[in-house]
C-alpha cells in the first residue's frame, strides 16, 4: 500500500514518546502537526513537567479530548491527506472514526511484540516473564473492540534490550531514540511514496495481558522464590510507585532491588525478615536468595529505609494478596476508573 500525498500529521495521545516526537515532527515544514490527548496523559509529568506544558512549549496545536469518537474538533481536523498515529491512546476507535481517514491512514504505534503482548502494562509483564525482545510496530487501526490490536502490520523492527534494563523506566529510556528514529523513517518513507507491505498477525502466537494498577496489583507475596520477588519489585519500579508490602501493619513501597547469592538455605518461615543492614540498604531473606533493597518508601513517598530495624519482618496479609490478584484495572481518559483502597 501507499499513502496519499501527506500534508497533516495527527498524533493521538501518548506520554514520553509523544512529548519527544512532537519536537522532531514540527521540524518538517511541509507537514502540519496536530495533537489530541486525554486529560490523564496531559497531566502526567515527564521529568518534572506535565505533558501539557511540554506541548505548550513546543507551540504545536493540541486539544484535550474526553472521547475521541465523539470529538467534533477531531473530525474537523482530519483531511483526505491526513495521517493519524496513536501512541497509547485510552480510546478504542470506532469504525466510524476510522472512516474519517483515507483507507489505512489511521495507525497505531506499538512498542511491543504483537500479537504476543496484546493488552496493557507491556513492559511490566515482559520483565516478569524475563523476555528480552523489544519490538517496534506500526499497525493499521480497523476500528471496534473486537478488532483491537488486530490490524495488519506495515512496519516492524526488532531488537534486544541490553543487560541492565531491568525496570520499566530503563526500557523507556533505552527505547526512546529507537522509537523516534522508527517514526521519523516511517513518515519520511510514507511522504516519499514508498510502498508498504501489509502483514497479518499470527494469531496462534497471540497472548493478552491485562492493564495493571501498581497500587492495587503490585503486592509482594513473600512465599515466592527470591528471584520471583526480585523480578516483581523491578517490574513495578520507576516510573511507577513501586511494589508494596507491610511493615508493622503499615504499607511500604520497595524500589532498587538486587538479587544476591547467599550460602544460607532460607526456610519459608525466614522469608521477609531483615537480616542485615548497611549504607547500601536492607537485606531481606527470600526463598533461595537474599534481596538487597536500597529504597523503602511510606505511603507519602518518604524514604524510610534508615528507620527499618534488624529483625523486622516484611509481610503481606493473605487478604491483601487476594484483593490484589483479583483486581482488574480499568482505565479511561481520566485515569483509573475502578479505584480501590488496599
Structural key phrases:
six-stranded antiparallel β-sheet; Rossmann fold; 19 strands; alpha/beta; seven-stranded mixed β-sheet; 342 residues
Q: How large is the radius of gyration?
A: 22 Å
Helix content range: 25-40%
By CATH, the topology of the largest domain is Rossmann fold
Indicate the low-confidence ranges by residue numbers: none
* Run of helices and strands: EHEHEEHEHEHEEHEEHEHHEEEEEEHEE
End-to-end Cα distance, whole Å, is 50 Å
Beta-strand share of residues: 25-35%
* Main sheet properties: 7 strands, mixed
Number of helices: 10
Can you characterise this structure?
The protein has 342 residues and is α/β, with parallel strands linked by helices. The mean pLDDT is 94. The protein contains ten helices and 19 strands. The chain folds into two domains: 8-208, Rossmann fold (3-Layer(aba) Sandwich); 214-326, Formyl transferase, C-terminal domain (Methionyl-tRNA Fmet Formyltransferase, Chain A, domain 2). 25% of the residues lie in helices and 27% in strands. A seven-stranded mixed beta sheet has the order 5-2-1-6-7-9-10. It starts with 7 loop residues before the first strand and ends in a 6-residue tail after the last strand.
Write the layout of secondary structure elements.
Layout: E1 8-12, H1 16-25, E2 32-37, H2 39-43, E3 45-46, E4 49-50, H3 51-58, E5 61-64, H4 72-77, E6 82-86, H5 95-98, E7 106-110, E8 118-119, H6 122-128, E9 133-140, E10 153-160, H7 168-191, E11 208-209, H8 214-217, H9 226-235, E12 243-247, E13 250-260, E14 274-278, E15 281-286, E16 289-297, E17 314-315, H10 318-326, E18 331-332, E19 335-336
Parallel strand pairs: 1-2, 1-6, 2-5, 6-7, 8-11
Antiparallel strand pairs: 3-4, 7-9, 9-10, 12-13, 12-17, 13-16, 14-15, 15-16, 18-19
Helix pairs in contact: 1-3, 1-7, 6-9
Amino acid at each position: 500500500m501507499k499513502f496519499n500525498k501527506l500534508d497533516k500529521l495527527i498524533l493521538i495521545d501518548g506520554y514520553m514518546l509523544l512529548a519527544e516526537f512532537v519536537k522532531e515532527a514540527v521540524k518538517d515544514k511541509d507537514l502540519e502537526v496536530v495533537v489530541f490527548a486525554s486529560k490523564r496523559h496531559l497531566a502526567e509529568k515527564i521529568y518534572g513537567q506535565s505533558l501539557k506544558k511540554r506541548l505548550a512549549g513546543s507551540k504545536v496545536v493540541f486539544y484535550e479530548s474526553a472521547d475521541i469518537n465523539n470529538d467534533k474538533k477531531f473530525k474537523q481536523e482530519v483531511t483526505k491527506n491526513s495521517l493519524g498515529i496513536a501512541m497509547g491512546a485510552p480510546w478504542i476507535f470506532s469504525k466510524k472514526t476510522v472512516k474519517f481517514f483515507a483507507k489505512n491512514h489511521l495507525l497505531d504505534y506499538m512498542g511491543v511484540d504483537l500479537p504476543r503482548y496484546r493488552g496493557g502494562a507491556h513492559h511490566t509483564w515482559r520483565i516478569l516473564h524475563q523476555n528480552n525482545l523489544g519490538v517496534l510496530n506500526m499497525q493499521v487501526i480497523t476500528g471496534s473492540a473486537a478488532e483491537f490490536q488486530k490490524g495488519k502490520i506495515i512496519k516492524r523492527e526488532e531488537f534486544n534490550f541490553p543487560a541492565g534494563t531491568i525496570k520499566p523506566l530503563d526500557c523507556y529510556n533505552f527505547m526512546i531514540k529507537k522509537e523516534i528514529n522508527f517514526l521519523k523513517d516511517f513518515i519520511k518513507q510514507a511522504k516519499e511514496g514508498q510502498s508498504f507491505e501489509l502483514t497479518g498477525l499470527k494469531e496462534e502466537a497471540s497472548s493478552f495481558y491485562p492493564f495493571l494498577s501498581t497500587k492495587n496489583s503490585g503486592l509482594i507475596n513473600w512465599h515466592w522464590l527470591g528471584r520471583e520477588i526480585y523480578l516483581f519489585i523491578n517490574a513495578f519500579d520507576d516510573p511507577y510507585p513501586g511494589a508494596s508490602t507491610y511493615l508493622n501493619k503499615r504499607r511500604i513501597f520497595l524500589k532498587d532491588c538486587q538479587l544476591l547469592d547467599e550460602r544460607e538455605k532460607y526456610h519459608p518461615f525466614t522469608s521477609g525478615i531483615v537480616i542485615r543492614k548497611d549504607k547500601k540498604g536492607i537485606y531481606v531473606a527470600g526463598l533461595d536468595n537474599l534481596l538487597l533493597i536500597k529504597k523503602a518508601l511510606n505511603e507519602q513517598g518518604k524514604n524510610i529505609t534508615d528507620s527499618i530495624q534488624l529483625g523486622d519482618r516484611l509481610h503481606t496479609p493473605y487478604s491483601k494478596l487476594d484483593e490484589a490478584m483479583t483486581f482488574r484495572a480499568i482505565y479511561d481518559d481520566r485515569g483509573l476508573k475502578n479505584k480501590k483502597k488496599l
